[in-house]
Specification:
The protein has helices spanning 35-45, 60-70, 121-124, 143-158, 176-187, 199-204, 220-234, 280-293, 298-312, 324-331; strands at 3-7, 11-16, 28-33, 49-53, 55-56, 80-81, 88-92, 101-105, 129-135, 162-166, 192-195, 238-246, 251-259, 264-266, 270-273. By secondary structure, the protein is of the alpha/beta class. The strands form 3 sheets. Strands 1, 4, 9, 10, 11, 12, 13, 14 and 15 form a 9-stranded mixed β-sheet that branches. A 4-stranded mixed β-sheet has the order 3-2-7-8. Strands 5-6 form a two-stranded parallel sheet. Strand 12 and strand 13 form a beta hairpin. Helix 1 packs across helix 8 (280-293), helix 8 (280-293) packs antiparallel against helix 9 and helix 9 (298-312) packs across helix 10. The longest helix is centred in the middle third of the chain and has 16 residues, at 143-158.
């Protein structure tokens, strides 16, 4: 099947056991994850030939990060080795009315210090590459990394490769003004834009009227307008917006919409009891890319992506360890959770 290349940062995630708070923790569980790495892993699980590109130190921790992807079939042969460290983030899982918390320790990570010439995009994008994916987290790592993203997008478009971007605004990495300026340059090359209920507002000042994400009320008409404004401004082929209603840290509603410049498609809505929310948006992106590459119609691709992401919320860690059949079963209406035997 088609080959997908993703580019970004993979980090070491350290989390207290269960629902312990940081101040209670005497030991931490270690896993690896990051937006684009999570998308590549999802696609690999679906049988897509997926490659992840980054820069990691040439030491045992860098090896461990690579192996965390290789064990699930992700192509890591284009990972550049160098620099001093792997970024770390600490994750405290919330419950009920107590929100989850994330603390970053990523300054000076190898990818954040990558420079022009580290990546040969002409070699990375082989003749069978059909899709390139990145997120707004990657250019936020520094002006140098934003330039690398621009190089990658330009090389992809020169070869006729579809480009997708999940806006993923992170206020701890840059300001709204910085994000808006940098991302606007990159959007020229993007075919499929993915956002959540706040990204379009934070990055481009485009807002949905009548929506209260903390109260769980989402206005469908408002999101149609947001998607239409994004398409009008950047000429995207498609815009996908995830629709999360936050009832509490433990319970969310989950759905999405897809706009193709003419019609808006809305998925069914799921009531999700959350095991681990981190990576939920990445699993949606991976599902959407799979659906579109598999020539599903817009509604089917959207339903696949939302079902995949719904399942991810039930899985510990950053990555979505589900199969195509499991996703299709849920998308087809079987959400009973009954034992399979």
């Amino acid at each position: 099947m088609a080959k997908v290349v993703t580019f970004g940062e993979i980090m070491l995630r350290l989390a207290p056991e269960g629902y312990l708070r940081f101040v209670q923790a005497e030991k931490f569980t270690a896993v690896y994850g990051g937006g684009e790495a999570n998308v590549a892993l999802s696609l690999s699980n679906y049988g897509i030939d997926a490659a992840f590109v980054t820069k990691l130190p040439k030491n045992a921790i860098g090896d461990a990060a690579i192996n965390a992807l290789r064990r699930f079939g992700v192509d890591t042969t284009k990972v550049v080795r160098g620099g001093n460290r792997v970024g770390i983030y600490f994750c405290e899982k919330g419950a009920s009315q107590r929100p989850s918390k994330v603390v970053y320790d990523r300054a000076g990570a190898s990818i954040a210090e990558a420079k022009k010439g580290d990546f040969n995009w002409d070699e990375i994008f082989t003749s069978d590459t059909e899709w390139f994916h990145f997120t707004g987290i990657t250019p936020a790592l520094g002006a140098n990394v934003a330039e690398l993203c621009l190089e990658a997008c330009q090389a992809a478009k020169a070869k006729g490769i579809k480009v997708s971007c999940d806006l993923n605004y992170r206020k701890n990495l840059w300001s709204r003004e910085e994000a808006g300026q940098a991302m606007a340059k990159l959007m020229e090359y993007v075919d499929v834009c993915i956002a959540n209920e706040e990204d379009a507002a934070d990055v481009f000042g485009i807002k949905s009227a009548g929506t209260d994400v903390t109260g769980g009320h989402l206005n469908h008409e408002g999101y149609k307008d947001v998607a239409a404004q994004l398409v009008e401004r950047f000429k995207f082929e498609k815009v996908a917006i995830t629709l999360r209603g936050s009832i509490s840290a433990s319970d969310n509603t989950w759905a999405a919409m897809l706009y193709d410049g003419k019609e808006s498609y809305f998925s069914k809505e799921y009531n999700v009891r959350i095991v681990d929310r981190v990576g939920g948006g990445d699993s949606f992106g991976g599902g959407l890319i799979y659906g579109l590459l598999s020539n599903m119609d817009n509604q089917s691709a959207l339903e696949f992506a939302v079902a995949a992401s719904c399942l991810k919320h039930t899985i510990e860690g950053d990555a979505n360890h589900v199969t195509v059949d499991e996703v299709k079963t849920l998308a087809g209406g079987d959400g009973s959770g009954r034992v399979q035997r």
